[in-house]
Amino acid sequence: MNVTGNVITPSASRHADLLVRGATVMTPSGAERIDVACAQGRIVALGDLCGTWSAETTLDATGLHVLPGVIDTQVHFREPGLMHKENLEAGTRGAVLGGVTAIFEMPNTAPLTLNAADLQAKLDAARGRAWCDHAFYVGGSAVNAEQLAELENLPGCAGVKVFMGSSFGDLLADDDEVLRRILRHGRRRLAVHAEDEARLRERKHIAVDSADVRQHPVWRDVDSALMATQRIVRLAEESGRRLHVLHVSTAEEMAFLAGRKHRVTVEVTPHHLSLQAPECYERLSSLAQMNPPVREQHHRDALWQAIRNGLVDVIGSDHAPHTLVEKARPYPESPSGMTGVQTLLPMMLDHVHTGRLSLQRLVDLTSAGPARIFGIEGKGRIALGYDADFSIVDLRAQRVIHNDWIASVSGWTPYDGQAVTGWPINTVVRGCCVVRDEALTGEPQGTAVRFLESWSQETRGESDA
Ligand code: DOR
């Protein structure tokens, strides 16, 4: 490796496939005015490369910021079985148009993703159709608990996801004995949708009797979320397993989780950070309906506080499309979930613009955080030898989000008509520019996300201790 001034190159080679010039680059050391050279999908040089490097393609990114590729660790792309709502091609197209370079997809498809063949079918369906890199969760349930240790280590598997409360689809593990079996079989961080099924059933009459979507956070109340989160943490402590609690929505859970960071990582969604009850239900009706629900301002404030104090590890979109016709059914027959993969970065950049969040913290939540907590290989930072995944954004660009920009088969966003400042301009996946000047270009070339080979061995040492 040669080190010349601030230019680091692995060899004497000075020809790149892609050179990104003139931008401010968000490196692990902070914002730097440097160029980035990429070859064979990886970053091969960083620094002032002017005059010393040539490239097949040069991207002049003057005035823009280069972020490490955004990794959205919670999306529902509905393929197979529910492709009238979404599919892998449209879902990943929306991802790259929104500046996302890798996604983890959820198992509540039809069929559910419960075994090696289900996982392989998703990987096969993604080949040649996925615009970004991808990994798929296997669902944890009573029928496959004993196979999970093997399943979670298959290539392309993001880990195991458990639904403790029913949301959409038939995947459910609400019984302590089943949860114990799931927790015992496997080493990777277990991802959990924490709402207490028994309490949801007991209180469903609130939704049915009112037929009013404003009652959604009353039916699925704070205790529904808190009881499930406390229960799964207790069970994980028994078995020495680490957890990832998805879409945390309450101040009470954040207070509880603050003392459990040695075992538990935390996700929040842009929806819970950007929308607020009751206003969102009055304005958007069931378009704002998701699980766990969007809640009142003091919960939203607590989520922001948890971002500021480092408690939150990742932002996941929980992109969960349903068609407008389905959403128009009378509540509570209207399904829960909204699109989000394409608006994750624009909405969060707007929060950066308004001063709620620093750009460095955003990078930690959307790139470094996912790589750190899920053991993703070669992604999550702009550094020599890492994958050349970039979300190149204009922090000053003003745009209005519209439904007709949304690539999802469902074709809508809760942010239709919303003005934002900060926008993804170019998206680069392993050195291929798939969005250039806000337009799709090239072919879908996404491949499976790689996880650290030694991941299961390393974590075994820790959890057995
Ligand atoms: O609102 C939701 N919808 N929350 C979930 O966790 C699942 C999702 C879906 O799949 O529609």
Largest sheet, described in full? Answer: 8 strands, parallel
How would you sum up the global shape?
globular
Strand proportion: 15-25%
Q: For the CA atoms, what is the radius of gyration?
A: 21 Å
Residues in helix, %: 25-40%
Q: What small molecules does this complex bind?
A: (4S)-2,6-dioxohexahydropyrimidine-4-carboxylic acid
Number of helices: 15
End-to-end distance: 39 Å
Strand order of the largest sheet: 10-11-12-13-14-15-16-17
Enumerate the spans where pLDDT stays under 50 for 5 or more consecutive residues: 1-6, 454-465
Mean pLDDT: 94
Structural class designation: alpha/beta
Would you count the extended β strands for me? 21
Summary?
With 465 residues, this protein is of the alpha/beta class. It is built from 15 helices and 21 strands. The strands form four sheets. The protein has an eight-stranded parallel sheet. The chain has a seven-stranded mixed sheet with strand order 5-4-9-18-19-20-21, with helices on one face.
Description of the structure:
- With 465 residues, this protein is an alpha/beta fold.
- It is built from 15 helices and 21 strands.
- An 8-stranded parallel β-sheet has the order 10-11-12-13-14-15-16-17. A 7-stranded mixed β-sheet has the order 5-4-9-18-19-20-21, covered by helices on one side. Strands 7-6-3-8 form a 4-stranded mixed β-sheet, with no helix packed on it.
- A hairpin with a 2-residue loop joins strand 4 and strand 5.
- Helix 4 (176-184) crosses helix 7 (222-239).
- The protein starts with a strand and ends with a helix.
- Mean pLDDT is 94; it is low at 1-6 and 454-465.
- Bound molecules: (4S)-2,6-dioxohexahydropyrimidine-4-carboxylic acid.
- (4S)-2,6-dioxohexahydropyrimidine-4-carboxylic acid (DOR) is lined by residues 76, 108, 167-168, 193, 290-291, 318, 320, 336-337.
- The site of (4S)-2,6-dioxohexahydropyrimidine-4-carboxylic acid has 11 residues, from loops.
